[in-house]
Design goal:
Elements lengths: L2 H11 L13 H20 L6 E5 L1 E4 L5 E4 L4 E9 L11 E2 L2 E4 L2 E4 L4 E7 L9 H20 L2 H24 L9 H4 L4
Antiparallel strand pairs: 1-8, 2-3, 3-7, 4-5, 4-8, 6-7
Length: 192
């Protein structure tokens, strides 16, 4: 799907005609274009969307402190977990899960070699999961209901549908995780 297709799906959901271009100058096109990125980012933060999960070794800011300070990745919307690569266990070698705290653009952790798993700000609509695109169309439809249709009931209906899609997607995403492996590092090391 493209950004335009997602916007048109949202417009259709609230009873509006699709637009041919976001530059066409209509109220619907201008408003949808204005609300799209904020809605996309909010939805990415709402769940662990597998297509948007990324992991990187963190860049140190100050390792003389305890806990050490690292930079939040530039494309990070939400930190999910931090592992210590220096304590790698098991066949995946990702390390032990570590305590962390995010403040502003810094991550504080006791990990010596922190691997950060986070939800990135994915902008390429071509990479969106089908459920994410559906959720985004409902969220956007809910956001458009008042400025375009002046309908509180339509807004509530679309945002309720959005919540239902996100709940279903979260369950499906959990089903895509590797559940054959133990989360216990002592058991995990036996699976090598």
């Amino acid at each position: 799907m493209t950004k335009l297709e997602i916007i048109n799906l949202a417009l259709i959901r609230i009873g509006e005609s699709p637009v041919t271009s976001l530059d066409e100058g209509s109220t619907a096109a201008r408003t949808a274009d204005l609300l799209y990125d904020a809605s996309r980012r909010a939805i990415l933060r709402d769940s662990d969307w597998n297509f948007a999960v990324k992991d990187v070794l963190l860049t140190p800011v100050d390792t003389d402190e305890a806990p050490a300070v690292f930079a939040v990745p530039a494309d990070c919307l939400r930190v999910m977990r931090v592992y210590d690569k220096s304590k790698a266990v098991g066949s995946r070698g990702i390390g032990a899960k570590e305590w962390f705290k995010v403040q502003g653009n810094k991550i504080y952790t006791y990990a010596r070699t922190p691997l950060c798993v986070y939800v990135r700000d994915e902008e390429d609509a071509g990479l969106f999961d089908a459920k994410f695109a559906e959720a985004l169309s409902y969220k956007l439809a809910g956001e458009l209901a008042m400025p375009v249709r002046q309908s509180e009931s339509l807004m509530a209906s679309m945002l309720n549908a959005y919540q239902n899609v996100v709940a279903t997607a979260a369950t499906e995403s959990m089903n895509e995780l590797d559940t054959n492996r133990s989360r216990n590092p002592y058991v995990e090391v036996r699976n090598v």
